[in-house]
Amino acid sequence: MTDASMDNAAAPKSGLTVVDERTRKRNAAEKRFQYYGIAAISIGLLFLLFLFGSILRSGLPAFTQTVVDVEFALTQAQIDEAESKMLKTKAYENFFIAALSEQLEERGMDVAFDAKAIERIVGKTGGTIRSHFQANPSDVGSRVSFELAASSRVDGYMNGRITRDTLVDSRFLMLTDLDLVDALEDAGIIHGAFNWNFITGTDSGVDNPGGAGLGASVIGSFFMMLVVLFLSLPIGVAASIYLEEFAPKNRWTDLIEVNISNLAAVPSIVFGILGLAVFIQFAGLPQSAPLVGGLVLTLMTLPTIIISTRASLAAVPPSIRDAALGVGASKMQSVFHHVLPLAMPGILTGTIIGLAQALGETAPLLLIGMVGFVAREYPDGFLAGFTDANSAMPAQIYTWASRADPGFYEKAWGGIIILLLFLITMNTIAVILRRRFERRW
Amino acid sequence: MPFSWLVLIILAVAVVGYVLGRKRALASAGGDSRDLHSLPSYYGANVAMWAIVPTFALIVVWLLAQPIFVNSRVLDMLPDSAVAEGGSIGLVMSDVRRVADGLDQAVVQGAMTLEQAGAIQAEATDVRERLAEVGVALGSNVTPEVLGGAQRYRSLNATGSTAMSILALMIAFGGAGYAYIRSDRHFRARNVVEKGILALLMFAASVAILTTIGILFALLFNTIEFFKLYPATDFFFGTKWAPSFSGRGGASDLGVLPLLWGTFYISIIALLVAVPVGLFSAIYLSEYASPRVRGIAKPLIEILAGIPTIVYGLFALLTVGPLLVSMFGKDTVGWMSGGTAVMTAGLVMGIMLIPFVSSLSDDIINAVPQAMRDGSYGLGATQSETIRQVILPAALPGIVGAILLAASRAIGETMIVVLGAGAAARLSLNPFDAMTTITAKIVSQLTGDADFASPEALVAFALGMTLFVLTLGLNVFALYIVRKYREQYD
Lengths: 441, 490
Hints:
Largest sheet of chain A: 3 strands, antiparallel
Oligomer: heterodimer
Strand order of the largest sheet of chain B: 1-2
Number of helices of chain A: 19
Low-confidence stretches of chain B: none
Mean pLDDT of chain A: 84
Strand content of chain A: under 5%
Shape of chain A: extended
Order of helices and strands of chain B: HHHHHHHHEEHHHHHHHHH
């Protein structure tokens, strides 16, 4: 007896305190399973981090522009002399080069350069200087500071896109020019400045990435969003009220509901085809117009808005309706005077999220002609903003991404930063609205 | 009369009608609103409604019908000889419209008087030059036929607009007057107004149906046009996609199979990335994570869903593509020749779909009742055994539905494949080859200056129809699975 019990105590096969082989396996499987989950979430978050990292790394340089900062004075005599020549701008350019070499000498730098090198670095400067003095005659004789934008390749060299190893000699920039750029940088003549033109400017042609700006397409997006807001909010709310409060249960209502949930899943490009065939070919509306873009995006966001509006209408408790009906309101009055105001915060949140979705949508805009159009100008006025051809932010980004010059890629990333800033702002407003006004019944 | 004036006048009629209608109703009750059937504002609203709604309905119908009518009349008067060699009547019509718009533009800018624009002769003046002065560029010289068509077009449009304005104003005044006369204290104004509002609400709800009808008609008509020019069997079973571009001549090969293959290949890779990652995230977040971790990680992952697809497209083109080339390019194993490939697009699309799969699965897993978990724990199962053997089987129909919805998203995705997948249509098994998809080809066939009557442009509508049917089928199938196999726990 005692032997047996001692044996058992010495080598227990299983028990609550001892882990046997099978339990260990099961526990290991449990741990593994948890690690899969943690790994999955980490992968998702890593992707997010990587995405934002590459957006910021590649996009931030778009907000700076390398400028050549030279200060010099011209006397009236010098100007008269330049104006008397055949090549007037050439004469102004010579003044600029003289001032530049003087400033380099002042700082004790000795670099050889010629006019061609200057042209490759800052482009043709003569015209800018001449038109400045023609526009501001009072500046003649006093020292004027010129901030001239450097060419896109110099820009790329300054922010690391182009290195001495990757640069191939061309008529745009030679390897030897980089010595001059380095010297100018040491002298503080060439430096980075905030690129306001990128935010306020308009698109440049295909050969000038340095001068490209997003301003005009922000305006285009703004007018599109106006159309979307003023069409999809009333129509969406009206449709939701009908479906949630008034619709009888019948075939027609079922058909509408199935339709709305299917429309929410139709690929956005199909809405683009609809816009092209119905609004542009059939109804004859102008191509590339924010009005057409807005109409297409309205049809696309309507299901989103209807779904969220119906949810917030349904969240208003029936007792509110009953109370209104009880004191003699009609059904319509109970909805418009009581249910709708109580559901409004939810409706606005859904609308803002729908608008944010529409703002980032690109594919339908490709088909109605908002790409390929070079948005060189701002619209003339408020009404013209709807019908004049324009681009939109995502379409402009796509246009830049598909151009051959890699200088535009940086602009595309920069455009994405601005687009994401708009989206983050809109979503933050939506979250604040929800937090501030959300009611639990 | 400019269009905006017409709208303003009608709105003014409505406002005046509101005030007068309200006054008249109150006067009929001797100034005591208690004697009225409805609140005074309903009488005003009734008059305003009668002024606005029928009028705007007329204007909308008229604006839709007028271009069709004018086009057909102008087409009738254009002789066959006006169609140039190799051109089409559609091109002549667009010329006519441009000349007409140009003449209108010239009148607006004051370069011509209305009479001059009406009497201009193609033989006597160089119309093209005159229009270029006001900033309207024309592709070719204006023939007398086109100019005649343009004049006809302008006069018909002018007559149409005048007739519409007069009719609209008559209806506005008539409607307001009719409702005004009926405004007295016995009139049930509230009931009428509410009926009107209800009709408006119904109309708004029907917009969804109108949109679907619009999509179907746009796709169907053009697809039928396409199949008249190009045999349907070649489209559905052709293994070669090689459209010829206008000007180069020659017949196009427009087989959809390489595009379908590219679409499915990219979608499969995307799902291979998104489903495991999304599903495991959902399981961890709903079963293991503490509320704090869940509160942070869930919104962070859902940020991925709020990022516009153009961002993913650029990410594929400029970041992931070059990265993959440096890993699998000719410097290492030589599988990949360019940054745009099935793999690039599939990977990035997979990232985009992670939150889609995870939040849908999360909802479904949360819907499995706690009693089932407790029962499983009570029998001695570990948490992971419970998940694998109880929760996942219970949630399976919903999860399959979520995966099908994600697949439908992947098939319809445009920007990522336009930028990341390449442009070459080919049937290949190598995931590092560039391939193209239905959506990418819709974009490339419809952007640019295509002639919309050519099979090369019309094929985009047939592709759109294929895409629409595919995604709709997947969605319906997903809903069917969810409904059929859903367990009812309550």
